Amino acid sequence: MSNTPLYQGQSIQVDKLENGFAELRFDRQGDVINKFDARTVAELGEAGAALAKDGSIKGLLVTSAKDVFIVGADITEFGASFQRPEEEIAAWTFESNKVFSAIEDLPFPSVTVINGIALGGGFEMALSTDYRVMSATAQVGLPEAKLGLFPGFGGTVRLPRLIGADNAIEWIAGGEQQKPAAALKVHAVDAVVAPDKLKDAAIKLLQQAVDGKYDWKARRAQKTGKLQLNAIEAMMVFSTSKAFIAGQAGKNYPAPLAAVSAIEKAAGKTRDDALKIEGQAFAKVAKTPQADALIGLFLNDQLIKKKGKGYVKAGKKVQHAAVLGAGIMGGGISYQSAVKGVPVIMKDIADKALDLGMEEANKLLSKQVERKKLTPEKAGHILSTIRSTLNYGDFQTVDMVVEAVVENPKIKKSVLAEVESQVRSGTIIASNTSSISIDELATAMKHPENFLGMHFFNPVHRMPLVEVIYGEKTSKEAIATTAAYAAAMGKTPIVVKNCPGFLVNRILFPYFYGFLGALRDGADFVKIDKVMEGFGWPMGPAYLQDVVGIDTSHHVGDVLAEGYPDRMKNDTGDKTALDVLYEQKRFGQKNGLGFYKYETDPKGKPKKIADPATYELLKPTQKGQVDMSDEEIIDRHMLPMIIETVRCLDDGIVETPTEADMGLIMGIGFPPFRGGALKYADTIGMQTILDKCARYAQLGKLYEPTESMKKMAAEGKLYFPK
Question: EC number(s) in its UniProt entry (predicted)?
Fold first, then answer.
């Protein structure tokens, strides 16, 4: 079939095919993917004009020359454009939408061939044609809500008219990627076929539309007309979904609710008026601090991944690993390595511990089978790549050893020296420690250049972060190889310079000290938890310490008090709330009593209950009872955390603000919609932070801003410039 070029751009080409059809092909030059940036939108306008002008075309195929269809909008470009005034953003969306509407209004039927991922603007492009044929291996969706936005290229207008308001709200508010079966079920696509039959199926469908077997004009009228809902149906759909979304998203994520309101407001309008409503509502959410933070988070994630790829290139590939110390943590690390294709030897000195480690790995694999993520055969094969042993027999074959024995420097040093004598030269040895100095542990090693820290977070299979901690003598190759191994395990490595507490715990504990200070001054721990959860934390500080373990928290606190005595040591001689609970052996969730007491719910999960006994135990540590304001509670927790994050940056513990903030989001669940401690500081303003610090100066060094913070305020600088 010979093609005649009709339009040639850098992202889009249009060819006339022999059968009277035209093919509009997305093929972004110099890139492996297609995405919508300003240039592509402009080219789509030009291509649409060329198609409208040619009177000989009978039908249009929209295709992609890449493995994906279109991954979405170029957020690096559009995110920056959201700094403009609201009216300009609304005008921009409406002008952009004219381009998609022009494709929709062409005087002949159109079919999109969805060969791979079609997300956000990519899926909205597909919605602007009359029909969609989807590959059985593709995925579609509108994930904008995850960036604090909602669709702005007509998604809130076309999708509800196509699949019904209730289905569209679920897709838009949830922001999830949809598989072919789900898309076909709600009629978001018209056919799902095998990848090799995709183009033929699309041409056949287009020919049938041209021949009048399908009423493409009726389909178009459905998408460009009013939403077909009577008043009672509309009330039911919108009021029910608003109540549900408000409960799910909460006040901290306004975009899903704003999307529902836009759909509701535009329900009685035809396409162009509905698009104006979408544009105005889109501009509003684009200007929210949540969108700013979540877009920043997306870009930060890209930067971290890019850095991770650099480590993968620079390091050696780990083909075979070993874990020292079984149990829950060792079993979790072994499972994570094996499930991602790196076989592992799990060694311990006791059969009982090995059984526990294998049990943990087996339990995690069984859950994958239950969720239909793995077949029983595949799970069995993965389990067979974890070999438990009581001796060092095959340690000569491993490239990497992760030591995960008890958090005790003497025991760790002994085990590390022993394993170093059992592995071949050049094997990297990493200690999974949450607080012990890597330089201190390295004194046990003959080759400290091959030694470093690899701090996994619990539970290993869920937590995305791994801190890769280098000591004074750690080689660059050891750092790169360890970071590459973490990435191969499906984790995000952040490289951190050795210091007490490393990055995440060093920043978390000033937050805990802020909490203990608020308790000392008479605040109620239940109210504190409620306020901090309202701020966006997944759990408040009392609940979090119960989950971490009061004993663990007490131990790490001692390490940090020694490391940073000026601000993290309790010099008063008075016991803190944590000291009292620790002495009473109230270790938190693990033994059913901490700040809260725990009972098992019907699903077998621990349920927290406020315990009157806690109040009695804490009375001697408190100056009395006060009803502390929400603002004071937030400030007293967040200011020490912000200041310590700045100190980590100033001390070169991490290289960039991006890594500091991403470490907090992935390591301790910092509220994503606030972007991290440094992004939060940017949002509320450094001068405001300094003013707040002055208000709490009497509380000591924990609330004392750094010189770099004062300099930033004076110069009006940001950690993340707009």
Answer: 4.2.1.17
